[in-house]
Amino acid sequence: MTAAAPPSTVSETAGLVPAWLQWPAWPFRAPEPQSPRKSETDLMDLKKFYIGGAWVTPHSSREFPVLNPATEEQIGSIILGDETDVNTAVAAAKAAFDSFSRTSRDERIALLERLLEICNARREEMALALSAEMGAPISMARDAQADAGIGHLEGVLAALKSQQLRETLANGDILVREPIGVCGLITPWNWPVNQIALKVLPALATGCTCVLKPSEHTPMSAAVYAQMIHDAGYPAGVFNLIHGDGPTVGAGLSRHRDVDMMSFTGSTRAGVAVAKDSADTVKRVTLELGGKSPNLVFADADLEEKVTASVLECMYNTGQSCDAPTRMLVERSCYDQVLEIAKAAAAGQAVGNPAEEGGHIGPMFDRIQFDRVQSMIQTGIDEGATVLTGGPGRPEGLDKGWYVRPTVFADVTNDMAIAQQEIFGPVLVIIPFEDEEDAIRIANDTPYGLAAYLQTGDPERAERVAARLRAGAVHINGGGFNYGSPFGGYKQSGNGREGGMLGLEDYQEVKTLHFG
Ligand code: NAD
């Protein structure tokens, strides 16, 4: 890290932020000395990679700053790896595979249970890292972002304990499930720990070894995660962490002949690149990509409650969720009433400092995203949509930090750019529909198919419409995601499923034994 002045907010956040996260305490050491191993490898350093069971100095020396989105100040820096770093990490994972793939299910359960204990003990550390690096308000960083690391672990453990690893088919043949091999795991910045957990845990659970390349924008939570795996006592080389950009490290993993599977979460653009780069070596590729999820609101729903909750869900995590209900489709007969409710809900959504407790939303995660959201808001205005609340610029009183105004557009048509493109900010578009058939047509008129939402007081309609929505999940009347359920999309939202049993199966090969 280059020497620089401490961010001005440190004094405001002191008390919330532990010493290891406060400037200039980098490189930092985890505050809880509970590690079963005490050595120099316990030292976490953002400029190091975790390879072969130790924090090592990368071959590359290309630095990349880590910024706090609320202060716009640099809070750390990482090294972006090169081809040599990719080769070193893959070689470590390959070397570890033979013995780790032969561990028993009970051994792997014991390791995951130890990891669960550590995740619970370090939830606050994780939340603070997430909040600092991507601007998640601390209450939400703790209760949702960091909690996902624990919830998915419980889901994976339950699946692993009940999975049939060997079964007899009706014809007498035996089917066995085996780990697929070395996995390359690429994750985004918006739900950093959630995504890491959904990839690393099934790899570890099934006996695979892996190389994780987290988003270069959120390396702090990834470093805490790597340290927790180290402290859980995983054998050297089973889990490896390298930082880097997409075109070098991401593509390097995708093209590597010793990587057997790529699991990618991020934009559809980069997911397509991963699939193409993986094609020459015929890897398995699973993709969790973007979304523009419809939310069908029928006049028979409890409008006040469901529309308010829907708007807040769209704004949650500052709109930076792949499955956010960003396209609200509203039955014409209740359109005006819904606009009033939606306007009030969005106008009431507080925006503020992520270091403070509360239900407010924070800034966009970085400057590029801030500019993109501003430009999409302008696009909506230029396309002729009506700004119900919000609009361009920063919220009043927030002159520093990449904050945007919660914005609702009415009178949107589904062919507008703001209805078709993922904005990835706190921006909701509202489109009227005439009847059920019209609603289903508009809902499915998108290249994406990650999630869909449905608000209706008629249970039969809920089933009927849900069956026709082309999406990997349908949330009915506010039903939320439960850990252990599969998560993934139709169409250009990806392929494969993460979480629970289906998440394990993506990391397994199936072998058939034919006995003579
Ligand atoms: P991004 O695609 O820019 O980056 C995601 C990751 O891919 C990063 O680690 C990045 O370094 C890497 N990457 C970029 N180009 C690459 C390439 N050519 N080859 C290999 N790796 C490459 O996405 P982002 O901005 O970090 O995240 C936001 C996107 O992620 C949104 O589109 C969002 O919808 C999507 N997302 C999807 C899910 C899901 O489960 N479906 C979950 C979270 C986020």
From TrEMBL:
One of its GO terms (molecular function) is oxidoreductase activity, acting on the aldehyde or oxo group of donors, NAD or NADP as acceptor. Keywords: Oxidoreductase, Plasmid. Residues 55-512 form the Aldehyde dehydrogenase domain. It comes from the Bacteria. The active site is at E288. InterPro entries: Ald_DH/histidinol_DH, Ald_DH_C, Ald_DH_CS_GLU, Ald_DH_N, Aldehyde_DH_dom. It holds the Pfam family Aldedh. PANTHER family: ALDEHYDE DEHYDROGENASE, ALDEHYDE DEHYDROGENASE-RELATED. Belongs to the aldehyde dehydrogenase family. This is Aldehyde dehydrogenase. The lineage of its organism: Bacteria, Pseudomonadati, Pseudomonadota, Alphaproteobacteria, Rhodobacterales.
